[in-house]
Specification:
five-stranded parallel sheet; Rossmann fold; 146 residues; 53% helix; alpha/beta
Length: 146
Amino acid sequence: MEGSKSNPTVANALQSKKLRVSINLKGTLLDPVDLTVRTSILGDFLRLCRLSSLYTVTQVADDAEEEKILDILEKCASFETGLNRHRVMFCDTCHGAVSMIRQLQPQMHIEDNGWITTQLEGKVPRVCPAKEGLKFLEQSLRSHRS
């Protein structure tokens, strides 16, 4: 199993229960500027909702932005696919995001903010950008099913 060679923590989580994954929605599923859904990522994101214990940690400017993101998640069937509403979290700052992610203790965090990625290195077993993270998770799940 490729995941077990490169990251035993991730492989062990896959074998015992659902993998605990956290993700920053901005820069991954959502365009960080206008919050539109990146359709090229949507299928992978919904698979992630179904196959993992997914937590979202997203920095927002205000309550209106938070409501907009919740509405987007509803419209793209995230909650129907497996994302739990109480696992959708928001914060005001990058520092807040780092604190929340560290408290969650995920086996993997998917992030496109370079500063947050740097702060999580050595504290979260695997931190990677959206495309790499979703690809790694898919390979790990495929290996686990075999």
